[in-house]
Amino acid sequence: xxxxxxxxxxxxxxxxxxxxxxAAISGQAAxxxxxxxxxxxxxxxxxxxxxxxxxxxxxAPKWDExxxxxxxxxxGDLRGRDEKVIQAAVDTVARxxxxxxRLLPGTFRLRNAVTLCPNLRLVGSGPDTVLVxxxxxxxxxxxxSDWYDQEITLADGRGFKVGDGICLRAKNPHNSGATVIKxxxxxxxxxxxxxxxxLRENLWQAGQPTAATLFPLLTGEFxxxxxxxxxxxxxxxxxxxxxxxxxxxxxFLQDCASIAIRGVTxxxxxxxxxxxxxxxxxxxxxxxxxxxxxxxxxPGSGSQRPVIRGNKxxxxxxxxxxxxxxxxxxxxxxxxxxxxxAGISVGHRDTDNQILENVxxxxxxxxxxxxxxRGAGFTGDRNTIEANVVEDSGGDAAAAVDIQGTTANxxxxxxxLRETRGPAKRVGFRLGKDTRDVALDGNxxxxxxxxxxxxxx
Length: 457
Description:
This protein is 8% helix and 39% strand. Strand 11 and strand 12 form a beta hairpin. The protein starts with 7 loop residues before the first helix and ends with a strand.
């Protein structure tokens, strides 16, 4: 699957919109860069006894106790059964400058996303804490709205409520590209609704605009130091329309840093499981992501240094999708099974990553794919793929590992490629005619008609 299958018009527009926002976390990036400078270039004494000093977020004491609120359906500091009670707890923690929201066992039904805050630990009670997305409602817009408007008129407002999270979609009237806007309904008169923020895009009847109650279950922008642990997220895909991973998922993060997601089950979203875009130092560990129509785990455009370890991914369209410019990451000891297309997909400038000790079984098209992209300089170069197992992946003429385009400077070391369904015309490694500097070292290749198909010859 190439990046063109992911709608290049939408992606270019998405990246163009997002790029202006990167400056907001540049201070955090600068601080991290300072920490990694060699000691000989910085002669300041080390910080050995940090104090809480106003404005100093780089060093802080490790406190024995932080502010904590418990949230439950029948017990806890705050009680309720929807996103509003969780959001109230998060907002209170935000006012305190950080702390923990502890979700007690129970099922919370969401009509809008829970928007996270910096310095937050959101921790559930394991699989007994379940956040479920309510069924989506949808309607065409019945009147034009201009980019400066803060309201819409629906053709049919049934199923919509004040407080709902919505997604507005249309064909852009100026360039025919896709317009996608996420907002919240904050007031209504009949089918006329006020939005929490202005549109900043034109929604004209010529572009066939629609509204639907679609949103990520957990989301955040411009955040740092967030941990999400030990809970289950249910996207209820059978009763929801699709919203792809550039905008949503069970978890969707944009322009964030220093994020940890551990022990989370993300299931059945009509889109992606866990997606993070332009987010740095994200750890996703010991999670399960399954049953999505989109991507299981989606380290998104420009994301630096992700750590993706010990996860189970199953029943998605793509298992682990390295998006654009994902660099210096680690994908280790993940189990990826029964994926409809590619188990692991690497492409547009996804460089200098390590893909180690993963198991990929029964992918529909290919076990590990390096996408062709636009040519030299655009491909996923300088990656190391070591000690992985790829088993029974692709059709009768497919490759377990398919390296396409001008992809260069890859090392495949001590991987095991196995085919138990019979050789047919199946290939272990397929090297495209324009690939170069691909090292195959000590790999085990069993059960294929062709062990290595080298089209460069």
